Amino acid sequence: MVSSALQIAGLLIGGIGMIGTFAVTGMPQWRVSAFIENNIIVFETIWEGLWMHCIRQANIRMQCKVYDSMLALSPDLQASRGLMCVGSVLSFLAFIIAIIGMKCTRCAQSSWQAKGCIILTAGLLFILSGAVELIPVCWVANSIISDFYNPVVNVAQKRELGEALYLGWVAAFCLIAAGAIFCCFCRCCEKTRSYGHSAPTHYRTHSQHLHRKTESSYSKSQYV
């Protein structure tokens, strides 16, 4: 019962992290315009994402345009585009593998070993996808903060952290947490399996010893 609840919890958390990763990859709110000093045009907000940039005017009208070329992006956004795609694929594979590992509940000894390998693979993929997602999110956040406090950068070009970065941190944490849960579940399965198979062996050995002792005493009484 506890192992099933642990599996379901890991799958739900991993699913939330996977959906969040997909959302972060497509959201344009990675860089948001900063209203500081002379930049007081508050009725116009600029969003910069991995695939497009948007201009929102007074919460009424929003126009988005896909980047004409990948070279138009800054180096951190160029790398983030590839890393987020890799993280999305890894999280999806981890989710599918986790579902496959949860299909059987009672299996033979050979199937227990296969199930443990499948769950362990899903856990490692979840952790890897979370780590891959953390790299671009932290990189872009560090770049935004560095430019914000850099006096050389023009005020109009300074940006703030967008909602996609905060969602990316939450999604990465969910993926790593799901991976840790599945890895712990795999360790619990190994301990339970080793205990389950060692106990009958001890019992059989003890029974055989008693049986031999009984036969020996019977043969001696019959001889006398």
TrEMBL record:
Gene3D superfamilies: 1.20.140.150. Its main location: other. It is found in: Cell junction, Tight junction; Cell membrane. It holds the Pfam family PMP22_Claudin. GO terms for cellular component: bicellular tight junction; plasma membrane. The chain crosses the membrane at residues 79-105, 117-145, 165-185. InterPro entries: Claudin (IPR006187), Claudin_CS (IPR017974), PMP22/EMP/MP20/Claudin (IPR004031). Keywords: Cell junction, Cell membrane, Membrane, Tight junction, Transmembrane, Transmembrane helix. It is a multi-pass membrane protein. One of its GO terms (molecular function) is structural molecule activity. PROSITE patterns: CLAUDIN (PS01346). Claudins function as major constituents of the tight junction complexes that regulate the permeability of epithelia. Belongs to the claudin family. This is Claudin. It comes from Pygoscelis papua (Gentoo penguin). The lineage of its organism: Eukaryota, Metazoa, Chordata, Craniata, Vertebrata.
